[in-house]
Amino acid sequence: MLPSRKSPWLGRWIAALLIVLSPLVIPAAPAAAADDLVGTEVTFHNGAVPLHGTVLAPAAGGARRPGLVLIAGAGGVSRESYRAEAEAFARSGVVVLIYDKRSGYSRATSSFADLADDAIAGVRLLRARADVQPSRVGVWGHSEGGWVAPLAAVRSPDVAFVITAGAGALPSDRTQLWSNRTYLSHAGVTRSLLEPIGVNLSRMMVAAGLFGDTGHDPVATLRQVRQPLLAVFAEHDRSTVPGESVRLFRQALDEGGNRHYTLRVVPAADHDLRHSTDGFVPVRPSGFAPGYLELVTSWIAALAGGAPRASADAPPAQELASAPLRPPAWYETGGLQIATVAVMLIAFLGYPAAGLFRRRGRTRPATGRWAGRVLAAGGLVCVLGTVTYLFSIVATGATTAGSTVLGRPLVWLLLQVLAVTVVAAGVRLALRLRQAGGGVRRGLLLAGGLVFVPWAAYWGLFTP
User: Fold this and answer.
1) Where does the UniProt annotation place the signal sequence (predicted)?
2) Phi first, then psi: what are they for 135, rounded to 5°?
């Protein structure tokens, strides 16, 4: 939602040579866990990168058990975000590793290859445990982790099986922009504003290399997966494209010759596989969707009897189709947009600043005084408000668009009213200056207003 990025840890090659190829496990005091589980704090390494996690295992002894490494979704989430899943899987007889993201993780700079190698280090850790059957250690990935888990399987034969939950088969940038449009549509935003509010800024960030590992091709990776794979999709997933992904998963696995996959759609589930009737609001009290945990644990247990035969559910309904990203036009380049904003800010801020330095006692006509003030103040607030709001949409994935008025978020409606006011003030100022003349100060302000018009039109501030 760019080419794949390299690891930022290149400066630590010397330290990497001092670390054993197998993970270094540093035992600590037992972690807090339910009475029927044993939690152990661990530290392990992917090359020079230390990773910190918790292993949850059934308290009861017995034969060696399957192992499972949980790979988190996007963002700097901690291991605790997936403790509920980990404890449920552990109670079913699986030894589970949850771990924090690598230090310095950023969606914009950490490649999926880096994250896959982190997960592989976790697999090696579990394979070395006395209570784990080494040949039965797999990976489970949620959301962004659903891109990482198949990649880990391709990169290491130590991965015995793959489970994805809420995963997508489309590139991350296309997925995110589909999600933005979905959330904005649900909030009641009119179709004509979906791209200005939910798409355009993200497209610029992708082109500038600020949107993460968009060079990763999930379909190409799935074609290379040879291990048994369980893909769990949510009926009401609003963050990854569910209907298209089911079809692409099946197509890619078939083309790659994998005959041991299971594709399941969990009814009444949201992106996090929590119980929800629409995917936007979880059913309270929030809990996992009925049947989800049992599906995963029973599938893992059944692997002891052999790999499953290929089977797939019908794709769930999907209201909006995803669309490939359009390459930015010349006027959509980040450099030009930044320069445009800078010119407007200089013009709008320069007008009152220059007024403070006028020589006292010098008489000046009051031509366009109020129009100039409205243009300067309104333009400044409108530009800064628009930029701030658009970046908030990117930061939250459009999940906080809020209620709408007349088919637009209330904040956007206010910005549109302000934009029209700014243009009206600019026209008024231009007419007054034409009649009575004006100085450089007002001329520069009017120039800023002229730049404002096409900029505001592009960002949808005049869109009905």
Assistant:
1) 1-33
2) -80, 0
Query: Residue 113, CB half-sphere, CA atoms under 13 Å: how many?
Result: 11
Q: Which amino acid is at 308?
A: P
Q: What are the tens digits of pLDDT across the range 10-65? A: 333 333 333 333 333 344 444 556 678 999 999 999 999 999 999 999 998 788 99
Residue 278 near residue 246 (C-beta atoms within 8 A)? no
> Does residue 7 have a pLDDT over 90?
no
42 touches 54 (CB < 8 A): yes
Write the DSSP string, 180-244: HHHHHHHHT--GGGHHHHHTHHHHHHHHTT-SS-TT--HHHHHHH--S-EEEEEETT-SSS-HHH
Rounded Cα gap, residues 204 and 97, in angstroms: 37
Tell me the Cα Rg of the chain. Answer: 27
- Strand 95-99 and strand 49-58: pairing? antiparallel
Instruction: Give the model confidence (pLDDT) of 297-309 as tens digits.
Output: 999 999 999 999 9
CA distances from 285 to 91, 269, 281, 282 (A): 22, 14, 11, 8
Q: For strand 95-99 and strand 162-165, is the pairing parallel, antiparallel, or unpaired?
A: unpaired
How far is 61 from 55, CA to CA, in rounded Å?
A: 15
The answer to whether the beta carbons of residues 449 and 377 sit under 8 Å apart is: no
332: left (phi over 0), alpha (psi -120 to 50) or beta: alpha
Tell me the CB-side half-sphere exposure of residue 34, using CA atoms within 13 A: 13
Residue 65 tokens, joined? 């058990």
* Whole-number Cα distances in Å, 361 to 20, 381, 404, 419: 80, 31, 51, 35
The token duo for 251 is: 């197509």
| Cβ-Cβ contacts under 8 Å for 172 (sequence gap 6 or more) | 1, 144, 147, 211, 212, 213, 214, 216
Q: CA-CA distance, 56 to 62, in Å (whole number)?
A: 15
Q: Which residues contact 180 (CB under 8 A, 6 or more apart)?
A: 194, 198, 199, 202, 393, 397, 398
The sign of the dihedral angle between the CA atoms of 367, 424, 334, 73 is: positive
Element (H, E) at 118: helix 112-127
State both tokens at 373.
């003030």
Asked if 67 contacts 53 with a C-beta cutoff of 8 angstroms, the reply is no
> Cα 303 to the chain's mean position, in Å?
32
Q: Which tokens belong to 333?
A: 């380049």
Instruction: Provide the β-strand partners of residue 57.
Output: 38
